[in-house]
Amino acid sequence: MSDCDLLVVGGGINGAGIARDAAGRGLSVVLCEQHDLASHTSSASTKLVHGGLRYLEHFDFDLVRKALKEREVLLAAAPHVIRPLLFVLPHDSHLRPAWLIRAGLFLYDHLARRRRLPASKSIDLRHHPAGAALEGRFRRGFVYADAWVDDSRLVVLNAIAARERGARVLTRTRCTTLKRESTRWRATLLAENGSSESLLARAVVNATGPWVTRFIDEIADTLTARGLRLVKGSHIVVRRLYDHPYAYIFQNPDRRIVFAIPYENEFTLIGTTDVDYHGDPGQPAIDDNERAYLVAMANRYFARDLSDRDVLWTYSGVRPLLDDESADAASVTRDYSLELECDSPPLLSVYGGKITTYRRLAEEAVDRLGVLLGHRARSWTRSATLPGGDVPRGDFQAFRTELARRRPWLDNGLLRRYSRAYGTCTERLLGTASSMPDLGAEVLPGLHVKEVEYLRREEWAVTAEDILFRRSKLGLHLPAEAPDELACWLAEHPAAAATARA
């Protein structure tokens, strides 16, 4: 049996962020996740760090301001996996008047201080590069800035940071029972391989996302504090629809918005939907109506018409949102609530939230728990970089140029991908390698043995899906049989250590 100050249940962005923050303040932390890190909601987002322009229509100014402030923090913390992205909003006079959009963008520019991103502006789509891909009826538009994020890698980076500060990170490990014993929680942790562990914790965080109320009702056996509304968001991926680097935000007649985003160089990502969901949170999938909706909304704006045959890949996630009794799923608040049962020992449950505000959510959670645990260490993550994000002067392009100088033998495609995925940790991955053969055999196109070993050893990767779709997006670029081929290779080449360093 082992003891810890804090047991965090759930390895999505909120759980990993809380584990990182708490470990950095000197608390002993254990994080357990029943599947892989970011295997559900946190890898199924629209891949944006943003203030949420559309939330202004719901007068959710506090959430937008909070998110805009965090956007600046995260851009500085992880310039390798988070980068600026300019959005083009074509004006459709039938939906919202131009003056209303301009007023909203003015607010968006000024609700929080901007250091890294330009202000919004009006554009003439007849002469702007983004106009060529659109139907000719769109003549006026607006450009504003937000940021793109590799969501699943952001989760992994937080887990690595937690481990570097002393936390134990246990993937594929489920918390099966949680019982109060005097001033401690006794938890039973069951690993995928059948081994179990009993653990005593002074406090527990329930960061199980769509399972948050089920965890309280079935595992912790306490009263459910808040209502939860599960909303499914689905996305489609098609071949690249345009050559320029801009993303689009499209207004739709139902008052919702859809994004079209450059994705993995060769593709365009289109999403998302907002549909109330009542199925298994672990098995969401796009339905025919959602596919048709996203295709129709893209066709409303793009000059090139899409059909269902153009959809190469889809993914869906279930957002665990606070049930604020909104009439439709798109209007439900994306803000979070931390429900704390202060009985000894304390249990804190996380409801709602969005990727952009995860760091602030974690900071607030550890602030509140620290008071109850008699541990008042100051918050620290606002000015800290995430693993790989400590590029000199925050200049990612200069870092990549220097990496190419130091490793001139490295293939250009690998240089781009490694620098974006691993940042300064690329040096740790490459180690003493001084030529392409030193990376080992090419297990699949673009995937060498050295990277597979690194992901197994350092990033908790176990399966082909972990490697091809969460640690990287190589699966999008490879034939359909590639995951099976990698799975066979992994089985034939057991990892030196069964899991990443705990």
Structure characterization notes:
- The chain has 502 residues and is of the alpha+beta class.
- It folds into three domains: 2-41 and 152-227 and 333-383, FAD/NAD(P)-binding domain (3-Layer(bba) Sandwich); 82-148 and 230-324, D-Amino Acid Oxidase, subunit A, domain 2 (D-Amino Acid Oxidase, Chain A, domain 2); 392-492, Alpha-glycerophosphate oxidase, cap domain (Helicase, Ruva Protein, domain 3).
- The protein contains 13 helices and 20 strands.
- The protein has helices at 13-24, 61-77, 98-110, 151-164, 212-220, 288-301, 358-373, 396-406, 412-422, 426-430, 449-458, 464-471, 482-492; strands at residues 2-9, 29-32, 48-49, 82-90, 121-124, 140-149, 168-170, 173-181, 184-191, 196-206, 228-239, 247-251, 257-263, 267-271, 275-276, 313-322, 336-341, 347-352, 442-444, 447-448.
- The strands form three sheets. Strands 3, 4, 5, 6, 11, 12, 13, 14, 15 and 16 form a ten-stranded mixed beta sheet that branches. Strands 1, 2, 7, 8, 9, 10, 17 and 18 form an eight-stranded mixed beta sheet that branches. A two-stranded antiparallel ribbon has the order 19-20.
- Strand 8 and strand 9 (184-191) form a beta hairpin.
- Helix 8 crosses helix 9.
- It is globular.
- The model has no long low-confidence stretch (mean pLDDT 94).
Structural class: alpha+beta
- For the record, the count of structural domains works out to 3
Radius of gyration from CA coordinates: 23 Å
- Major sheet summary line: 10 strands, mixed
Identify the CATH class of the largest domain.
Answer: Alpha Beta
What is the H level of CATH, i.e. the homologous superfamily of the largest domain? FAD/NAD(P)-binding domain
Q: What's the CATH architecture of the largest domain?
A: 3-Layer(bba) Sandwich
Overall helicity:
25-40%
Give the N-terminus to C-terminus distance in angstroms.
16 Å
Tally the beta strands. Answer: 20
Residue fraction in strands: 25-35%
